[in-house]
Design goal:
This protein has nine helices and 16 strands. It has two domains: about 190 residues, Medium-chain alcohol dehydrogenases, catalytic domain (Quinone Oxidoreductase, Chain A, domain 1), CATH 3.90.180; about 120 residues, NAD(P)-binding Rossmann-like Domain (Rossmann fold, 3-Layer(aba) Sandwich), CATH 3.40.50.720. Helix content is about 20%, strand content about 25%. The chain binds zinc ion (2 copies).
Length: about 350
């Protein structure tokens, strides 16, 4: 399912299955989570999207072919393919252990074809093992909502925690925070009783609208919603020295606000992407804390519906796409010539990228 132009629906395209390069693996996609970033890719809200592109960066796949230089995995292994697809390894950020900020990073489902597909190719060095306790569809949202959410969670520091936007990431982070004995406040769209009830069922201390103030000043807040107006709201909710972490890749403009909201050594920061060390650490946490990812599955060819439901806020937890699971071919399908064939466009369901 590919995005051909900003703002247009995804189309079901038929493409040849790619051969993995020396350091890559070919995976059969078992499940792929739907992330808000995919909406930003589809809507053209991120710079320089190389359309047409296959979105999807929460891939759970089964290894079908190994590049000649891959020794980390075996055929048949279940792996996760996250957002961080490639880094240069030599820029100042990479050398300082900040590969999440690499100047030449490439990202799955944004600048590299992703997992809204039956097959995906990924650099094996950036793939990860996902805990076996999770099914394929449960594991998919761990790859971004969980993993990048966890980087934001660590950036927020200790103490009571406010979560603005209670979707795929927040519902996982809330479970980790509660397991660690923290007080969790869930802020949803005003009037979204279903999301507030969902948060309460997960055991949060308090759930209400983002137009409500918490009963006590928070130690930290994470803004998952792509709504800049929530930044001053969250700042007003944290105590002195409190920290507000913006966890999304895109956000509407932050309105101006009085300096007194920042005064008292409060801070605002963003969290960008992930490192492989983040992935390893988070997967250990996910193996130890029995998370219960709330997922709603959609067939791959219903990707547009899944994105629509996410856009409208009609999901509890995460949407996950599931490709049709047909027996794998014994031989890889390679294009007959070196020139990539033009994609065919058919009605949804007729062919799948
Ligand atoms: Zn994501
Ligand atoms: Zn780099």
């Amino acid at each position: 399912m590919r995005v051909h132009a900003a703002g247009s629906p995804l189309l079901a395209d038929q493409l040849p299955v790619r051969e993995p390069g020396a350091l890559q693996i070919l995976v059969r996609v078992l499940a792929c989570g739907v992330c808000r970033t995919d909406l930003h890719v589809a809507d053209g809200e991120l710079p320089a999207v190389p359309y047409p592109i296959v979105p999807g960066h929460e891939i759970i796949g089964r290894v079908e072919r190994l590049g000649s230089g891959v020794s980390r995995f075996r055929i048949g292994d279940r792996v996760g393919v996250p957002w961080l697809g490639e880094t240069c390894g030599v820029c100042g950020y990479c050398r300082r252990g900040l590969e999440n900020l690499c100047e030449r990073a490439r990202f799955t489902g944004y600048t590299l074809d992703g997992g809204y597909a039956e097959y995906a190719v990924a650099d094996a060095r950036y793939c990860c093992i996902v805990p076996s306790r999770y099914s394929d569809v449960q594991a998919a949202p761990l790859l971004c909502a969980g993993l990048i959410g966890y980087r934001a969670y660590r950036a927020a520091g200790e103490g009571s925690l406010g979560l603005y936007g209670f979707g795929a990431a927040a519902h996982l982070l809330a479970q980790i925070a509660l397991a660690e004995g923290r007080t969790v406040f869930a802020f949803t769209r005003p009037g979204d009783d279903a999301a507030q009830q969902f948060a309460r069922e997960l055991g949060v201390t308090w759930a209400g609208g983002s137009d409500e103030a918490p009963s006590e000043p928070l130690d930290a807040a994470i803004v998952f919603a792509a709504v800049g107006a929530l930044v001053p709201v969250a700042l007003a909710a944290v105590r002195k020295r409190g920290r507000v972490v913006c966890a999304g890749i895109h956000m509407s403009d932050i309105p101006s606000f009085p300096y007194r909201l920042l005064w008292g050594e409060r801070s605002i920061c963003s969290v960008a992407n992930l490192t492989r060390a983040d992935a390893a650490e988070f997967m250990q946490v996910a193996a130890a804390v029995p998370l219960e990812p709330s997922v709603e599955t959609f067939p791959l060819d219903q990707a547009n519906l899944a994105l629509k439901r996410l856009r409208e806020g009609h999901l509890q937890g995460a949407a996950v796409l599931v490709p049709p699971q047909v027996p794998a071919p014994t031989q890889p399908q390679v294009p007959p010539s070196t020139a990539p064939p033009a994609p065919s466009r058919g009605p949804p369901g007729a062919a799948r990228a």
